[in-house]
């Protein structure tokens, strides 16, 4: 079992990162529990897909992060309040920030 207390809540906002201008435009936000020395305990992504002319968010998570996803029950509960509302990246970031996530996005190339 993973020790979730070792990680800190954080997110990476791909469409706002410095590298987004030189690669295919990303429309996703990776979020999870991150280790202070690098890496993560578990990470998932909210990805916006163009469907019927709309940007529709979809939560994606590999099976090695399901326990971390379960620990984010406060965020999942908040998402029930915007069920079927096609929230934007900005609205999702507001939810993450309200629940103690730190913005870890690389806005400038080091």
Structure description:
The model has no long low-confidence stretch (mean pLDDT about 90). The longest helix is centred in the C-terminal third of the chain and has 10 residues, at about 90-100. The chain has a five-stranded mixed beta sheet. Strand 3 (about 40-50) and strand 4 (about 55-60) form a beta hairpin. It is α+β, with helices and mostly antiparallel strands. About 20% of the residues lie in helices and about 30% in strands. The protein is globular, with a radius of gyration of 14 Å. It has one domain (about 5-105).
| Radius of gyration computed on alpha carbons | 14 Å
- Share of residues in strands: 25-35%
Average pLDDT over all residues: 90
Number of separate domains: 1
Structural class: alpha+beta
Which ranges are low-confidence, i.e. pLDDT below 50, for 5 or more consecutive residues? none
Quick summary:
The chain is an alpha+beta fold. It has helices at about 65-70, 75-80, 90-100, and strands spanning about 10-15, 30-35, 40-50, 55-60, 100-105. The chain has one domain (about 5-105).
Write the layout of secondary structure elements.
Layout: E1 8-13, E2 28-34, E3 40-51, E4 54-61, H1 66-71, H2 73-80, H3 89-98, E5 102-103
Parallel strand pairs: 1-5
Antiparallel strand pairs: 1-2, 2-3, 3-4
């Amino acid at each position: 079992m993973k020790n979730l207390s070792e990680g800190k809540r954080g997110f990476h906002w791909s469409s706002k990162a410095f590298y987004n201008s030189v690669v295919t435009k990303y429309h996703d936000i990776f979020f999870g529990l991150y280790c202070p020395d690098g890496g993560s305990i578990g990470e998932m992504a909210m990805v916006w897909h163009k469907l019927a002319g709309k940007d529709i968010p979809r939560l994606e998570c590999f099976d090695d992060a399901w326990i971390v996803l379960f620990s984010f029950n406060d965020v999942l509960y908040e998402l029930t309040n915007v069920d079927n509302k096609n929230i934007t990246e900005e609205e999702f970031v507001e939810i993450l920030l309200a629940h103690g996530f730190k913005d870890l996005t690389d806005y400038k190339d080091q």
